[in-house]
């Protein structure tokens, strides 16, 4: 693990995004709230938040940090669900991995919720979109 003991505590934020490609039937059911397993978007949102909070348990050598806030937003489009996670902290290291994990876990939960209707759903395009704070400063895709 990288030693961050001498780094200053600063406000940091990261935003990550991704998507789950789904068929038209899933889009219809998401918009109508009629999926057999229930409210897939709510389940995915909560799963993403939990994923962000447990990142250091899942990713080897990732520092456990105090997360100040997590938001996970899901937007139903014509052939996919876009996922965006924003994670904030005041700590010695960034929250990029927490934001990425939030998107990945939200996407996996969404696939679990829709797999009976679309077994071919695909999770992809997971990436850091921006990060602020810390020694290396701000970065935007």
Automatic annotation (TrEMBL):
CDD domains in the cross-refs: MoaC_PE
First-tier enzyme category under EC: lyase
EC number, as in UniProt: 4.6.1.17
Pathway(s) annotated for this protein in UniProt: Cofactor biosynthesis; molybdopterin biosynthesis
InterPro entries, per database record: MoaC, MoaC_bact/euk, MoaC_sf, MoCo_biosynth_MoaA/MoaC, Mopterin_CF_biosynth-C_dom
GO molecular function: cyclic pyranopterin monophosphate synthase activity
SUPFAM superfamilies: Molybdenum cofactor biosynthesis protein C, MoaC (SSF55040)
GO biological process assignments: Mo-molybdopterin cofactor biosynthetic process
Presence of the UniProt keyword Nucleotide-binding in the record: no
Keywords, comma-separated and alphabetical: Lyase, Molybdenum cofactor biosynthesis
All residue ranges annotated as the Molybdopterin cofactor biosynthesis C (MoaC) domain in the record: 1-134
Protein name from the UniProt record: cyclic pyranopterin monophosphate synthase
């Amino acid at each position: 693990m990288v030693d961050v003991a001498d780094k200053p505590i600063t406000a940091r934020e990261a935003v990550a995004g991704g998507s789950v490609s789904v068929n038209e039937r899933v889009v219809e059911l998401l918009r109508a709230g009629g999926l057999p397993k229930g409210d897939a978007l709510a389940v995915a949102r909560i799963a993403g938040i939990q994923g962000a909070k447990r990142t250091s348990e899942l990713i080897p050598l990732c520092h456990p940090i105090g997360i100040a806030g997590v938001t996970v937003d899901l937007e139903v489009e014509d052939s996919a669900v876009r996922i965006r996670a924003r994670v904030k902290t005041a700590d010695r290291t960034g929250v990029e991995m927490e934001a990425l994990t939030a998107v990945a876990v939200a996407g996996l939960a969404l696939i679990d919720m829709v797999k009976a209707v679309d077994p071919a759903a695909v999770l992809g395009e997971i990436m850091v979109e921006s990060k602020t704070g810390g020694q290396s400063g701000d970065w935007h895709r």
